[in-house]
Amino acid sequence: MKALLVISNGRGIIAEGDDMNALHAAYDASVTSHKDDPHTSEPRHERPAFADLKGCHEEGATGHACILKTQELPHAAKEYYRAGFVD
User: What is the pTM of this model?
Assistant: First the structure.
């Protein structure tokens, strides 16, 4: 389990990393692949800029992205790993 996750509440993990730089790179890669993949069956949701992401403190509205610190919210992190990744 990575130290940091970008999650989309109610949907799954968008990116993961062991530090903020790795998380940022993984998030940027995910956003690029999300925009460029015409074959995904997932509906297109605009993703905020990395700098605009806030920390996850509780479940928010479904589909809103935030940064989850796995050591602070280990049970939530496990549930998101079970749910998997979203495109």
Answer: 0.81
- Distance CA(31)–CA(43), nearest Å, equals 14
Give all strands of the β-sheet with 12-17 in edge-to-edge order.
Answer: 12-17, 4-8, 65-69
| Rg, Å, the chain Cα set | 12
Q: What is the mean pLDDT of each run of 10 residues along the chain (87 residues)?
A: 90 94 96 63 71 81 85 91 85
**SS3 label, residue 75:** helix
19 Cβ contact partners less than 8 Å away, ≥ 6 residues apart? 3, 4
